[in-house]
Amino acid sequence: MRVLVLGGDGYLGWPTALHLSRRGHEVGVVDSFARRQYDFEMGVDSLVPIATLQRRVHTWSKVSGLHIAPFIGDLTDATFVERTLAAFEPEAIVHFAEQRSAPYSMIDRSHAVYTQVNNVVGTLNLLYAIAEQDPSIHLVKLGTMGEYGTPNIDIEEGFIEITHKGRKDILPYPKQPGSFYHLSKVHDSHNIMFACRIWGLRATDLNQGIVYGQQTEETSLHPELATRFDYDGVFGTVLNRFCVQAVAGHPLTVYGQGSQIRGMLDIRDTLACIELAVTHPADKGEYRVFNQFTESFSLNELAGMVSDVYPGTVEISHIDNPRVERQEHYYRAAHTKLLDLGLVPHMLSGQTIEGLIHVAERYRDRIDPVAIKPTVQWRHTASTLATAGSEPAVPEAFGVGVETSATIGSAEG
Amino acid sequence: MRVLVLGGDGYLGWPTALHLSRRGHEVGVVDSFARRQYDFEMGVDSLVPIATLQRRVHTWSKVSGLHIAPFIGDLTDATFVERTLAAFEPEAIVHFAEQRSAPYSMIDRSHAVYTQVNNVVGTLNLLYAIAEQDPSIHLVKLGTMGEYGTPNIDIEEGFIEITHKGRKDILPYPKQPGSFYHLSKVHDSHNIMFACRIWGLRATDLNQGIVYGQQTEETSLHPELATRFDYDGVFGTVLNRFCVQAVAGHPLTVYGQGSQIRGMLDIRDTLACIELAVTHPADKGEYRVFNQFTESFSLNELAGMVSDVYPGTVEISHIDNPRVERQEHYYRAAHTKLLDLGLVPHMLSGQTIEGLIHVAERYRDRIDPVAIKPTVQWRHTASTLATAGSEPAVPEAFGVGVETSATIGSAEG
User: Fold this and answer.
1) Min CA distance, B187 vs chain A (Å)?
2) Per the domain annotation, does B225 fall within a domain?
C-alpha cells in the first residue's frame, strides 16, 4: 500500500515509516521539524543522537535498498497538504504530526493556544484535503488514552452503550482530558467523527497509551537510523525517564502518591498496531476507535521495576504532583480490538528495562540533569522551564534545582 | 454587579447589555464588529437597520441616563483581553463573542478553520486572563443545544449518570455536534470544564436553543436601540426567516421531511436567563451547564404556525436537506435548572409571530430575496453563497435562483 506518515521524523513516526517500508509498503514521510524546534526552544536534545531526515532516508536506502519519499512542510499550510496528497496519492495516511507533550501545552497561554491551533488546524486541513482529493484514503490518527481521563467505570473503545430512563443508545465515550494537549486530541476526535459522517471518510483513531522503548528491528540496523530518546521534564515519558534517572544517579521521582495508573506499550507494538490498522482499513464513512496499549501500571510499579532491574542503588522519591489529577482511582480500559486483529504484544520485562538502561548508559555523557526537573505546574498559568534556570546570566541559580529537587515522573507525553 | 458583555454589538449581546444596564448592573460591552464584517463578505444586511455601537451607547445614555462602556477589540488578541479585564474589573463576563452560524462554518475549509480558531482561541485567551487577574470572575458562556445532537436517550443538562458493568459515575454528556461551528462550542465546553478543574474558575455554560423575536422592552424604547434581524441563508434562524418568507411571498421552505425537532426560546427569555445566571453565580471551581430553551418544535410545526397566523396565503415547500442530520429522531431534553432559578418563560404564541411578521412588513423593501436561498451544502467541501450569484458580471444568473429554488429553513444559527 501507499502510506504517508505525517510526523515521520519523530520518535514514533520515523520507526513506523521504516517498519512499513520494510514490510513492503510504499512509504512517504511528512515533517515540519517542529519537534526539533522544541528542543532548541528548551535547550535540550535527544539522549540518542539522531541524523537529519535527509540523512536517515539516504541511510535507509543504502541499508535496505528501499526508498522513503520525504515531504518537508507544515500541516497548518493547507496548500502544502493539498500538494503533498496530490503528489503522493496515498491509500492510507498515518497521522503523528501533532504537538504531543502535555507539559509543553501547559507552559503558558501561548503554548496552550499553539498546541490547540497547531493540532486542530493541521487535522482540519488534512480532512478537507482527503475529502476533496480522495475520500477513500484511510486516515489512521494518533489519539491518546489520556482523552478518557479516569472515570469510575470501565473505559470502552471510543463508544459506550448507555441505558437511560428506559431508552438505549450507543454514544461517544465521555471524555475528561487532563491538559490542553489532551484536550486538542479530544477536539480532533470530534472533528474526525463528524467528517466521516458528512463526507463518508474512513478513519481509525488510535487512543495510544504511554510508549516505552527506543529500539526496533529496523532502527537497530544502523546508528543513523536511530530514533529519539527524550528524558527531559517536558517531552520525556515516564519509563524512559526513570531509566535515565537511575543511570544519572538521581532518585526516581514519582508525582504525588504514585498510585496513578496508565496504559502502556512497547514501541515495537506501536509499529505492529499501526500496520494492523493500515492493512485492515475502516469502512467508508466509519469512524472507529482502538485503544492502543497492552498493559496497565501504576507509577509506583514502574519505579519499583526499574529499581529492581538496575544493578546499582536506586532511590525512589515522591514529590508534589505538578498535575491536577486523581491519584487514587479506578482504572480498567478495554483494549481487545487490536488483539482481535492479530496483535501479539511485547509485555514489559526486566529485559526491556535492561535494554533501556543500556541505551542510557551508552549516552550517559549526554544527560543534562537540569533538564530532568518537571517545572511546568498545572495550577499555574505560567511556568518557567527547568533549563531556563541554567542560563549563564543567573549564576546563583545554576545547579541549585538539580541538587534540591531533581524530579521525574510525567506519566504521559 | 459589574458585567462585561462580550459580543455586545450582536443580535443577543446588545439587548442583553441594555437589559442588564436597566436592571441596575454596571455594564461594559466588547466587540470586534466581526458580525458586521460577515455581512460585507456576504453582501447582506440586517432587515432592521442598526446604528453603530457608539451611536447605540450614546442613545441609551440619552434615553435611560445609564452608561454602557464600549471596548473595541478582538478576543483572539490576548493583550486586548488582558487590558480590557484590567480596565473594567468585571464580576461576571457574559460571552457571546463567537462566530455563531453553522452554515458559515460549513462554507469551505477556510471558514471552518476560521470558526474553530476564532472561537477556541478567543475563549482560551479569556480563560487565561480570568485565571491570572481574578479567578472569582464568573464566566457565563453561550453554548448551544446543537452540541448534543439527537441521541436516542433523554438529553440532560451537561452531565449524565452512567451505570456500566456494575459501576457508576456522573460524566460529561456525550456530544454529537452537527457542524464545524457546533464542534467549536463542544471544544470550548471541554476547555472551560478543564480550566474550572485546574484553576478553580467558576463557569456557567448555557446550551441555548434557537432564539426567535427581535424586540425587547429596552430595544423598543428608541429606533437606534434596535437589534439585528437576520433572514439570510447563512445567519438567519428558522422562525425569523419563515416570517420574512411569508411577507416576501415565498414558500416557507422546510429542509427535508421537516420532522427535525429543535429547542427554542423567545429573545426576552434569553435576557432573563442570562440575568438569572449572572445573579446566581457558579461556585468556585464549578463548571455547570444549563439547557437554555423553553419549548421544542419540529420545523413542520413552526411552518404551520406561521402559515396559520399570516393573513395572506402561504405555501410550504419541502426541499432537499442541505445538512446531514437525522430527520426522524427522538428528542427530549431537560431544561429545569433555569426554571428552578425563577425563569417565567414567554411561550411561543400567535401574537409573537404577528409581531415578527409586523417587523418584516415594516422593512419589506429591505428584503433581498436572493439572500434567502440556503446554498451551503454539508456534503460538499466548498459551497458558493447565494448572494455570489447576483453579481452584475454574471447577468444570466441574476434572479434565476430566486424563481426556481428560493428556500429557507435553517433550524440553527
Assistant:
1) 6
2) yes
